[in-house]
Structure formats: C-alpha cells, structure tokens
Amino acid sequence: MRPLLLLPAGVAILGAVALGGPGLVDRFLPRQGEENTSSLVKTEAVEPDTPADVVLAQSDGGNSPRSGTTDQPGKVDETALRYFAAKGDTKRLEAEIARLKALYPGWTPPKNPLATGPANDPQLDAMWKLYSEGKLTALRKAVADRQAAEPGWQVPQDLLDRLAVAEARDQLIGASDLKQYDKVVQLAATNASLLTCGDVDVLWRVAEAFVRTDRKDRARDAYLYVLKNCDKPEERFATVQKALPLLPRTDIDQLLAEERKAPDGKGEFDPLRTDIARQSLANAGDDPKLVVPPADLALVEKLANDRGLVSDAVLLGWYHLRRDSPQAAETWFRRAYGKENSAETAQGLALALVDISRPAEAESVLFQWRNTSDDTRKVYLAAVANLLAVTPPPQIAAEVLDRMSRAVAEAKDTTSAEQFGWYADALNQFQTAAQWFALALGWKPDDEPSAYGLALMRWKLADHAGVRDIQKAWIGRSERIARVGEPEAKPRETGRVPSVVLPLQQPGPQPETAASTSQRAMPPDLDPRAGTTKQTRAAPAKTTGCRETQDPRGLTPTQALTRGWCLMEINRPLEAAAAFDVALGGSGQTRSDAAYGQSLAYLRAGLADQAAVASSKAPLSRERAVEVRVALLETQALAAFEHQRYPETIMALEERARIAPERINLMILRGYAYLKLHRFGDAEQVFRAAAATGDRDALKALGDLERARNRN
Known about the structure:
Elements: H1 9-19, H2 52-58, H3 66-69, H4 79-87, H5 90-103, H6 122-132, H7 136-149, H8 157-177, H9 181-189, H10 200-212, H11 216-229, H12 233-243, H13 249-256, H14 270-286, H15 294-307, H16 310-321, H17 326-339, H18 343-355, H19 359-366, H20 374-388, H21 398-411, H22 414-426, H23 430-443, H24 448-460, H25 464-473, H26 479-482, H27 557-569, H28 573-583, H29 588-604, H30 608-615, H31 622-642, H32 646-659, H33 664-676, H34 680-691, H35 696-711
Helix pairs in contact: 1-2, 4-5, 6-7, 8-9, 8-10, 9-10, 10-11, 11-12, 11-13, 14-15, 14-16, 15-16, 16-17, 16-18, 17-18, 18-19, 18-20, 19-20, 20-22, 22-23, 22-24, 23-24, 24-25, 27-28, 27-29, 28-29, 29-30, 29-31, 30-31, 31-32, 32-33, 33-34, 33-35, 34-35
C-alpha cells in the first residue's frame, strides 16, 4: 500500500484557504506593505477570515505536523541537503536550502552538510539520485519495491515531501506550457514550497498566470517578491525583463525602484531602462494619444546624441511627427537619413517635409524608395499631390514632372492625378488637365472631384456637349457639376504661367493667357481691378518691420499674421500669402484673420483659384465672406472677358449684382460683354443706364455700340 504523503501544515492551510473560496489570489501572495518573509507565502498563521472547519478538514483533522516542523527547526530533515552536498550538486543544494528556509524560518543551514548524518544507504542514495535526475516515476517504483521487500523500512519524510513537490512542479510547468493559467495558480497555492528563490522559474510562471487571468496586481507582487528576496543578478534582471511586456508602466516603475546599485553607482537595471524608454517612444510613435514620461524622452535623446544610432533618431522622428511637431521630426529624420539612406529614414523625412510645406524635397528624397512598400508608395504619392497643390504653382523641372506622372500612372492614384489636372489648369493647359481628370475618373468612376474637374475643363475648351454629358451622368449627385459654367464654377487663375509643358500635353493651339494678351477688349480705365475692395481689418501693421526678406515658417501664428498684413501694406502679396499660411496654424480669430488675409493676398496677385481655396480654410464673418465673394466674382468676370468667354463674364457680374450694388465700371463691362455677343439691345440698355449718371465712359461705350451696329 502506498504511504500517505503529508504536506507541511502551512501548505495544507494555504491549500484549504485557496481552494475553499473566492479569496484564492488575495491569500496567495503578500500584498504591498505586508511583512516580507523568505517565501512568497505566509505559513505561520491562518488569515482571520478563513473558515475554521475548512482549514481543519484540509490539515488532517488538526493533527498536522506543523508544530513538529516549522516551530522546531531541530527536527528538520536534512537528508536531501546532505545528499546534494555529497554529490557536489551546487544548484540543487542551493534550492534545497532555500526551500528549507521557506518552510522553517528559524532553521540555519549547517556549515558542513557532510559533517554529520546517518551511514550511507546505497538504496536510498539511488532513490535520491533518481530524484535529482527528475525520474519521478522510477523513484515511486523504487520506494514501493523497497517497502514491499522491507516491510519495516520507513521512507524519509523529506524524500516524500520532495517527491510530492517535484510532481507538483512538473504539473505546474505542464499547465503553464499549455496556457492553463487557472490551474497554474491552483497548483502554486497548494504547493507553497515551490514559491521560493530556489526556483525562480516557477515564480515567473505564476506571475504570468496572474496576468493572464486578469490579476495584474498579484503578478506585480510576485515579481516584487523576487526582487525583494532573491539575490542572483541574472535572475533579478530577467525578472524585470519578463514583466516588461506583461505589466503596465506604473507597475514596471515599482519593480525598477527595487534596483540595487553597484559600488560605482551603476544600477543593475540601467540597460533595461534604456530598452523601456525606447519601447515607450516606439509605442508613442504608433499611438499619438500615449503620454511618454519626460525621463524616457530625455534618455532616448541622450542616447541618440551620444551613440548616434540611426534607430534612436528614427524613434524620435516618429514620436515628434505623431505629435504635430514636424520641424523636430524633420531634424531627427534628416540626421538618420544622413547616416543611412533607407526606405524607413526616407519615408519619415518625406512625411516631415510634407508637413512643413516642402513637398518638392519630399518627392526627391523618397523617389528611389517609392516602390519599397505600400506605405512608402502612399507617402511618395502624397508628396507628389502636395507639390502639385502648392500655391502659386511652382515651376517644376520637366524630368521631375515626367517621373511623377509615370509614378502616378503606375499606381493609378486618383488623388495625384486630380492634382495634376488642377496644376495643368493653373498653367492654362486645359486639354492636358482634361486628360488627367479623365484618367483619374477612369480609375475611380465615382470620384466626384475628378468628374467636376473634367466638366470644368470641357467648359473652358468650349466643349459644351461634353459638359452636358458629364452633368447628365451626375444628375442628382453633384450640385456643383450641375452648375458648371455658372459663377460658382471653379474660375481659371490669371497669374503667371511657368514655361513648362506638362506630361500628356496634346498638340494644338493653347488658349491665350492674360499675360500674353496684346490688346484689351475694353479701355484700360474700365478695368474692374481699378476699384479694389476695402480691407476691413483692425490695426494694420506698420510697414517698416517687414521690408527685409524673412522665412515666415519660424514665426508663431500671431507673428506671421502681423507680418502678413505688413507685407500687404507694401504690396508684396505673394510673400503675404506665405505668412498668412503660417498664421493658419493658429486658432480662433487668428486663423479666421489669416484665411481672410490670404484670400485678399491671392486676389491682389491675380490668383483667383487660390483666393477661393484660402477663403474656405477657416470660418469668415458674414461681412468678410461677402467681401471676398464679391472680389472673386469681379476677378472671374475680368478673366473671362480677357479670354473672350463673354457668357461667363455676364454670369459672374449678374451673380455679383445679387449680393452687392453694381458699380458703374462693372455695368459698362457687362455692356461690352453683350456687345461682343451681338446682343445689341441688352448692351444699349446697360450703356444708357450707366450714361444716365453722367459717366463719360458710358457715353463713349454708346458710340462703340453704334459703330458695331453699323458694321453689322
């Protein structure tokens, strides 16, 4: 008959408490603030809320060996200790000492375990050998065989205890490997002698089991137990390493607080602090909402400066980029890119450059890596789109335009193709613009912006049937497509035209531009731009502070706004527009003032498209919105007249008249548009109404009307 194995009383009590109710975890590990013992469990007392009947039932009816073990260290069975010492098994000797200390706090290990003890028993030695080799099944058989052969032979209690614990350890390791975490906790609770510094691996597994069963506070206590009680440097270091991916940062900081210092002042966890700081920044690079402790940021910056690792610079670049600090991101990414021109460093640098409005550099940096991955391709195409959207349109080298167009066509990127269309439109290359919009629409048939752009280009090319086809296809889906040709339609800009031919340019004559028109269709003094709109703003800036050239990107939004108004005062509208663009980074009234100022700046520069876009960048007061709208319609009317699109001229002026009183010079412009369309009656009505005010230009216009009638 197999003998009954009696566990130490403390273990039995722990098991009763642990398995007897919901308080398993709370009774398993000592909480913060409790007195530390040499074991992870307290075996000296039963907690006051433990059911007494359960404890007694699980401790052999009250006849536990507690009093003969824990309280009387003289009776401690040191057989295993002597055996491991005799065999020179240092590792198991240390583990056995730790186990006995945990079970018998008053026990002191002998200085020489071999000095005393019973005579050698070859059979018993063989059993201990089986135990030390982990052959537990063979050990069970050896014990049973000897009991059968020698009925009076008594199995050493320590061997039985160690066998039971070893079997429990095997079960615990197996449950841990199978991710049966509740079973791991139960086995640990009923085998408290496993939870010592002699077997730190078990402690690590139990801590992980707590984490996996949503009891991270108990896991923290388990890791803290190791750091407070165990001395091996490699095990202490590994303990924090294992906790890193499992515990929140606040708990990790508690573990780090148990760090021990070397005589030279160096902490045992210094390398880990470096890894923790880097991981903190890596996590923050993925999640912009994460708050990084200032100490982590400072440590990684110091590492990047001292060691110059590309990986640290990249970490800092992504951290700043995700937190809307593109200037700082550009600094770190450029440092990394300078040391290692790779897809990652180029991608980060390109994103930062796009964010600080330097898309041309971004395109150049990332071009060679554009097809490395989907991410790099997307960033490259974003740089292309942003470069094409710069206002006023930049003059881009032909080879750059060619490679960008090929990349866009290869990727079939609708957004970039659409920007190519608007860029071509800004250069008055309407046929090319139409082709880009058509290409984008072919890739994405439901792309309303591309359909709108194509309709507008067909209108500008006088392809009214083509416009109607698009309007029919989009009926009920886009109000602005339905109104192409009306004042709300996107007007063509009348600014400078760079001397560049875009890809997909078709042969044939191009529409004449404002810059190339040799003769005006009306007297110069009737130019509607002569009547500039008022600029309703408060406290205009003094002009003496902005005559020197300065990059506004280094200014705060408020400073940039002031500089923008100052530049408007000295008639440098394009520089003012750039300053207002920086001011748009502000908020509230500053942002609204910047949008208004940039609209006026572009209008003064003759860039109506950009003025319209600027006016939509922030909410404007009703008065300002009307003012900008009136100015846009005037500019549109003039541009249409200069390019002999007289119906557009009339529609723009009529729309303007609906929101603001019509000035005499604009009435005369409308009359000349009627005249060019041979609508002599309408022209006469307008000219006579203007002449009734006594305006000499209106009287002259009546003479022009009479001569036109005579020629026809």
